[in-house]
UniProtKB/TrEMBL annotation:
Keywords: FAD, Flavoprotein, NAD, Nucleotide-binding. The keyword Flavoprotein applies. Disulfide bonds join 44-49. Binds 1 FAD per subunit. It comes from the Bacteria. Coiled coil: none annotated. FAD binds at residues 53, 117, 320. Belongs to the class-I pyridine nucleotide-disulfide oxidoreductase family. This is NAD(P)/FAD-dependent oxidoreductase. Its cofactor is FAD. The keyword RNA-binding does not apply.
Amino acid sequence: MSEEQTCDLIIVGLGPGAESLATGAAEAGLRVVAVEKHLTGGECPYYGCVPSKMMVRAADLLAEGRRIDGLAGEATITASWEPVARRIREEATTDWDDQVAVDRLTDAGVTFARGQGRLTGERTVAVQGPDGATSTWRAERGVVLNPGTRPAQLPIPGLDSTPYWTNREAVQATSVPASLLVIGGGPIGAEMTQVFARFGARTTVLEAGPRILGPEEPEASALLTDVLAHEGVRVMSGVSIAEVGYLDGTFSVAVEESGGRRETLHADQLLVAAGRTPNLDDLGLETVGLDPTARTLAVDERLRVLGADGPVEGLWAIGDVTGQGAFTHVAMYQQAIALRSVLGEGGAAAQYRAVPHTTFTDPEVAGVGLTEQRAREAGLTVRVGLVEDLGSRGWLHGGAGQGLVKVVEDADRGVLVGASVVGPAAGEVLGFLAVAVHAEVPVATLREMIYAYPTFHRAIESALADLDDDG
Ligand SMILES: Cc1cc2nc3c(=O)[nH]c(=O)nc-3n(C[C@H](O)[C@H](O)[C@H](O)COP(=O)(O)OP(=O)(O)OC[C@H]3O[C@@H](n4cnc5c(N)ncnc54)[C@H](O)[C@@H]3O)c2cc1C
Ligand SMILES: NC(=O)c1ccc[n+]([C@@H]2O[C@H](COP(=O)([O-])OP(=O)(O)OC[C@H]3O[C@@H](n4cnc5c(N)ncnc54)[C@H](O)[C@@H]3O)[C@@H](O)[C@H]2O)c1
């Protein structure tokens, strides 16, 4: 163990938020040490948002090409995974090398330390490098934790001894399997299912819950399920997986449906996308009185980590481990607030009533704020407006214009507390509703607006009109 070194701020785990925070803190004059054990920038640029959205873009192009028949002539589409794999390797991840990101940090004046960081007490961190050597640091201001998550390992008999994919292997695929089983119908499972199916894999998605995209509005899940089924995907919900095997290049998955029917499915590849495990178990949390087995770190509105007796001295956390939405935009939002807190500055505190999200299937599934069910559980007087088509624009769009808009009103206050949009560019249409929920624009004001014809967002006007019909 080396002699303790001193700095102002240590950042452990460099997800997208921490990368920004490190640069900002160094630019503000702090001596910053940034610790990363794998790839600087975290899951999003190397295994998450960026490569997966390159895959989605390619799959959407194929689908658009296939829609030419009957709308604009004839097209013969020949799918090839080669440009997708190449773009991910060369443009997105530089072959999963983070040197550019490390250089960006060091150019900004940050001291970069490659290794596993662990708290050893208040404001102190030990960093174990790849060679096993350990350096120790004391930070005068404190420590920011941004360790993120890893794919959850399911305790399914047989699974661990098979070469199954998680999102990390899926984005590194150099070819498309002829057949694919996907365990988990959350955002990762839904996006990957559609991508590989559109590239020709016979795909089945296996979801334990009653429907895919379970936290979304049921109407949104149902619409996406229909679209996937129409594209030839088998969607099995309410299943439990008894066993997984692998023999001679083929996976076998024994599935029990809710009615008790058993079936063994076979495929060339298995993708497990069944949730995430927070990287909190090897972070030395116990040395500052925190529980290393917790699923999230409680934080206050300034991102200070909360212990049993209030904020832990000199300790902040940002990103997925705070449990406020596992999205890059949440981590980025939080880093700016945490940085101001580290620097002793004020400014707006964190609040999460209008966290937007988009699952990049086609149609996209986007939401903000509360679903109808969550609003009812919160005890609000709820009115709901729902339109299950996208009006003239949906029809003009041809085959792929299906969608919906659902708005959830707190009727006592006359403001929207949540909304969902499914459709082409739903994530963009959602922007309007995110403003409405965030700024608590009165529903009466939203109804006075003029909605351009024929846009997708015009369906919002119809959904607002439908609020009147709700009991
Ligand atoms: C397939 C996929 C698609 C996604 N798509 C989207 C999307 O479209 N939009 C969106 O907003 N979000 C998306 N996400 C979620 C997004 O990737 C995360 O929310 C985002 O990366 C923020 O995570 P984070 O900052 O908590 O940490 P992470 O990105 O998980 O990074 C944490 C970093 O900390 C490092 N680390 C952990 N422990 C230690 C330690 N003890 N010492 C040193 N280093 C450590 C890890 O190696 C990692 O690099 C997607 C995720 C996946 C998996
Ligand atoms: N477009 C986006 O913004 C985007 C895309 C991908 C991921 N993400 C983020 O990453 C997070 C993780 O994504 P995820 O899809 O892995 O996790 P998730 O937790 O959101 O969904 C996992 C799904 O797997 C199911 N499941 C769990 N155990 C199962 C089992 N044994 N058998 C069958 N099904 C099982 C769950 O019921 C759930 O529907 C998301 O919650 C999201 O915040 C965002």
